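Sample entry follows:

_____
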Amino acid sequence: MDRLDTTRLTDLVGKRLKSASRLRDLALRQQELIRERKMGDLMSLLARKQRLFDALRDVDRQLDPYRDQDPEARSWRCAEDRQRCARAVQCCDQLLSEVRRLEQQSERLLVQQRDDLALALQTAHGAAAACGAYAAHTSFQSNPSKSA
């Protein structure tokens, strides 16, 4: 492997790191929007996240040939370049792990909100039915001639 290949590898790892960092930022914002119940803004954010996931998948495909190589056989311009690239890979993996954790938390928040809303709707429906029955009963008692 020549230095051009390691330069390309470093560039791709940098793109991957940038995408992972942006995804983490959006995942944090996503939780804020969920907590604030801003579903319109959330939908917009999810569309942006999808584009980032697509870009990340594209970079990962470009990185595929490097996965089969022996890292020791790569020709780096200097040892520091190799170390920087290795740190970037490690940082990217940590960010993506954090994104997964944040996504799971967001899903739990949404499920909880959905369940809370379902319970509120069920309670409201029960209260409305009770009010309707009470109103019908009071109307019937105050005007019994309507039943005849």
The chain has three helices and no strands. The chain has a mean pLDDT of 88. The CA atoms of residues 47 and 74 lie 38 Å apart. Helices lie at 3-35, 39-67, 79-142.
